Write a sequence for this structure.
């Protein structure tokens, strides 16, 4: 049975301050939790008997068999599933995010957790192993971001740092950013190493980061000259950009 203390702990982890202090985060959903159990340390897990029966050995410090509406009482989802788990946040070294060896995706002030989770999911799909975020980017271990990521943080390392210092310290020649005025991305010669920067939903890339960009890219609308919406959602733009970087170059 899920105790009131456990439910209180789950509710507390909705807040970033409590996630930072405890080093814990929550994940819900049958496939999401199963994927994360393979990678992250699980402090405790509550699930239905039917879900547990399909998993074999479950690597969690504490297992709680859900009774009645236990999961519904604790869940942060509108439609609770069969399992909820509390995991320990991983610790990564920023040295692993080396743009001289491969492409790094950098996020400058992404605020919406859904956008962030979707972007990390896209990074996973397109083989980006490290995402470097400014300190004011949303928390990938927040409940909404984790749900939107569909388990991608099990494969993608998400780092938080001073983005300005990170770019300056690596001195790479290929620092890409997307703008309304730049080289048509469909015609550009794109490298397989360097930094791709995606900016804030409303304000784009901040000026001090823009000053470090060496290659400005533009996602050209089709056909040329037609009136269109002013801009793309940042997650949608990221999908297009990453797809172009992974397209074989002529």
């Amino acid at each position: 049975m899920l105790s009131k203390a456990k439910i209180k702990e789950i509710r507390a982890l909705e807040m970033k301050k409590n996630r930072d202090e405890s080093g814990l985060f929550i994940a819900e959903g049958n496939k999401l939790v199963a994927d994360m159990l393979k990678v992250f340390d699980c402090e405790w897990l509550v699930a239905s008997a039917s879900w547990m029966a399909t998993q074999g050995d479950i690597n969690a410090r504490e297992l709680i068999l859900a009774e009645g509406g236990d999961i519904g009482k604790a869940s942060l989802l509108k439609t609770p599933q069969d399992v909820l788990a509390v995991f320990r946040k991983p610790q990564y070294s920023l040295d692993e995010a080396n743009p001289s060896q491969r492409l790094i995706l950098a996020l400058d002030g992404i605020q919406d957790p859904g956008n962030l989770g979707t972007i990390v999911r896209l990074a996973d799909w397109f083989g980006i192993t490290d995402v470097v975020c400014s300190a004011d980017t949303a928390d990938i271990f927040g409940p909404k971001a984790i749900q939107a990521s569909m388990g991608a943080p099990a494969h993608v390392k998400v780092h938080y740092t001073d983005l300005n210092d990170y770019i300056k310290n690596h001195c790479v020649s290929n620092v890409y950013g997307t703008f309304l005025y730049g080289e048509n991305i469909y015609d550009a010669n794109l490298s397989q190493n360097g930094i791709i920067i995606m900016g804030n939903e409303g304000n784009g890339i901040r000026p001090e980061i823009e000053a470090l960009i060496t290659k400005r890219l533009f996602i050209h609308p089709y056909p040329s000259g037609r009136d269109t919406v002013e801009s793309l959602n940042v997650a949608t733009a990221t999908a297009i950009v990453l797809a172009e970087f992974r397209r074989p170059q002529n």
Notes: The radius of gyration is 20 Å. The longest strand covers residues 175-184.
